[in-house]
Amino acid sequence: MNAPTEFARAVCPHDCPDTCAMRVTVENGRAIKVVGDPDHPPTQGVLCTKVSRYPERVHHPKRLTTPLKRVGRKGEGQFEPISWEEAFALAAPRLSEITKREPQALLPYSYAGTMGLVQGDSIAQRFFHKLGASRLDRTICAAAGAAGLKYTYGASIGMHTEFFEESELILIWGANPIASNLHFWTRAQEAKRRGARLVAIDPYRSLTAEKCHQHIALRPGTDAAFALGMMHVLIVEDLLDHAYIAEHTLGFDELKMRALAYPPSRAAQICGVEAHEIVELARLYGKTRKSAVRLNYGMQRVRGGGNATRAIACLPSLTGAWRDRAGGLLLSSSGWAPVDTHALQRPDLIPGWPASQPRVVNMNAIGDALLHAGDAKFGPKIEAIIVYNSNPVAVAPDSERVAAGFARDDLFTIVLEHFQTDTADYADLLLPATTQLEHFDLHKSYGHTYVMVNEPAIPPVGDALPNTEIFRGIARSMGLQEPALYESDEEVARTALRWNDPTVDGTNWDSLKKAGWLKLKLPDAPFANGGFRTPSGKCEFSSPRLAAEGADPVPDYLPPHESADGAPELAARYPLAMISPPARNFLNSSFVNVESLRSTEGEPHLDIHPADAALRNIGEGDIVRVYNDRGSMQVRARVTERAREGVVVGLSIWWKKLAPDGRNANQVTSQALTDLGGSATFYDCLVEVARA
Ligand SMILES: Nc1nc2c(c(=O)[nH]1)N[C@H]1C(S)=C(S)[C@@H](COP(=O)(O)OP(=O)(O)OC[C@H]3O[C@@H](n4cnc5c(=O)[nH]c(N)nc54)[C@H](O)[C@@H]3O)O[C@H]1N2
Ligand SMILES: Nc1nc2c(c(=O)[nH]1)N[C@H]1C(S)=C(S)[C@@H](COP(=O)(O)OP(=O)(O)OC[C@H]3O[C@@H](n4cnc5c(=O)[nH]c(N)nc54)[C@H](O)[C@@H]3O)O[C@H]1N2
Ligand code: SF4
Ligand SMILES: [Mo]
């Protein structure tokens, strides 16, 4: 007899702007197929290749199915199975002992393994807050861009993805949508069919750049200079919307002064492009009514990432592109959703809140933090860390130090995971977590404007538990009495939105749950009549808040930490700028262990320009050593003009233990931070390359 087939609705949980709706086919409690939901307008029935393979990941033979206790040395990855009772009985006394003595000696480490509001930061945050644990600054990805938008538009808000298909000119800037924002690419293709011009601004000829009409390959970290050069042209050739500037912007005179210091010749010299590329693009941009910018996070992983975001974000307000719904800029739409972060995370549970607040540790400097002995400035030494929704030993910069920190014998480490990742190898306790198909969640998106509900499709695989339930279990074993720790997942989800916000348009939890998603009610052209969310309500070319913080109020070009301009002595020793953007078939370090996807990527590569390769006597297919003072890795060279001269590209993020030399790109990246937001600077990294 055939098993009954069931269909369930789910949401892709991954850190991707598309936040697709999925339909899951279930037989005998197993997910056998997932497809894109044809009824969800942003998804249009299509999932990317990676997530089409989701059942392969969920039912992977190496899924963690039982709690594990370390038996070997840290990092060796030797464990023995234990029960949940034993796991909680091991965790609770150790965490109690440490936090009673010094709450801040406990640190959470998490990011966006799931973007769900419930399995992300609800019960977990409440738990850490209740204990008074150190707080984590979750800045590994988007913080510089988010700060840039906050100081310019007031929040992470911008154009609607769907209206890009009506645009006449699209600048795809620091973005590789074919790999990392597929459903935007569909819109851009449609615009192209209707006659739009697509221009990629990217140091690398990515899968996307090669399909655009034009590709401008600037040096990494020079985007602010490029945008200021464009502004120079817009100003001197008077391609401005004076009425829009007068009504809806603040600080035009200051911005004009700044832009006039960047004539195209100077900007071109900084960016390593031809002056005419800047001039022609600025003219086209200024003269096209429906001009749109798809900015993405690839351009802000450098020292000046916040200022660069600000500079680019000023462009549509100079030309008045916002007047049309197919004009403007989109970096993130996440700020549109009326999420009640306070209700979800309950910072008021912090003992002494709001007067006293625990110290904040920036996740990008986790290596240094774990190796710090503690002092008055840093605060107490970190004695315990709980990692969930993240794989820091693979993804955090300056990996040599990250691994050394996690290898500390006196550090108590709990990891909640689906798989035995590079980080899991260092756990004292490794706890099996459910995947999206096994738990409940609520999602917003940073690429579209729907809020979506994820219902479990199958029972938990093995003894896996949702993150929320694992934290409830630890809390219960520690004897914590706070009721907020024991709310159910659905109770948490109910509190996650500000239901009286006009964008929710009167919907309530029950109807959202029944419908599966709701589209936020927003104007088509969000800033056609101003309405920015800054204190002035205007697009702030000059930011009074930045001035009050003692920072430069007007966007400027800041040379990368590691560049000939920023550090000439270093550049003499390490002349090549390395960037390590995402590979198409991985999602950060997720999916690297899915064999069919890893075999499509093949092996770790380094793309190097023929001139740079010739100088070093490197041939196609040679194994090369990529190195700087922080570390080294070995990869296979691809000699190709996809990488511009002076730049090498290593698509990422490999699991170290699945790479031939046990290392990955983060061996050489640095813990230095960006100008605004305290973000990571993965693409601000000088190296040298030699034949191995
Ligand atoms: N397939 C796949 N999709 C993903 C991910 C993944 O790992 N794989 N990761 C997800 C996550 S977490 C994020 S944050 C997004 C990231 O996706 P994007 O925001 O698109 O950012 P990146 O892929 O980091 O970089 C995009 C492009 O920026 C270029 N770039 C690098 N440095 C610079 C620079 O200084 N200036 C300019 N103009 N361009 C530069 C890179 O060469 C790359 O082609 O994608 C998400 N989607
Ligand atoms: N060199 C280099 N490094 C980079 C980048 C780069 O471009 N170059 N990109 C950076 C960026 S943009 C980002 S966002 C970060 C991403 O870094 P991370 O957020 O650490 O992303 P992943 O590597 O995908 O790891 C997420 C982990 O969470 C686990 N997970 C997923 N869902 C759940 C769940 O429900 N419960 C639990 N307990 N675990 C779960 C997955 O199995 C996976 O191992 O990496 C950064 N690192
Ligand atoms: S990773 Fe992105 S494109 Fe792929 S299914 Fe998930 S949301 Fe959609
Ligand atoms: Mo990211």
UniProtKB/TrEMBL annotation:
One MF term in the entry's GO annotations = oxidoreductase activity
Co-factor(s):
Mo-bis(molybdopterin guanine dinucleotide)
**Gene3D superfamilies tied to this protein:** 2.40.40.20, 3.40.50.740, ADC-like domains, Dimethylsulfoxide Reductase, domain 2, Formate dehydrogenase/DMSO reductase
**Which key words tag this protein in UniProt?**
Iron, Iron-sulfur, Metal-binding, Molybdenum, Oxidoreductase
Q: Which InterPro entries match?
A: Asp_de-COase-like_dom_sf (IPR009010), MoPterin_dinucl-bd_dom (IPR006657), Mopterin_OxRdtase (IPR006656), Mopterin_OxRdtase_4Fe-4S_dom (IPR006963), Mopterin_OxRdtase_prok_CS (IPR006655), Prok_Mopterin_Oxidored (IPR050612), YoaE_C (IPR037920)
Q: Does the keyword Iron apply?
A: yes
Q: Which residues form the 4Fe-4S Mo/W bis-MGD-type domain?
A: 5-62
Give a yes or no for keyword Disulfide bond in this entry. no
Q: Which PANTHER family match?
A: OXIDOREDUCTASE YYAE-RELATED, TRIMETHYLAMINE-N-OXIDE REDUCTASE
Indicate the family of this protein. Belongs to the prokaryotic molybdopterin-containing oxidoreductase family.
Protein name listed in UniProt: Molybdopterin oxidoreductase family protein
Which species? Trinickia violacea
Lineage of the organism:
Bacteria, Pseudomonadati, Pseudomonadota, Betaproteobacteria, Burkholderiales
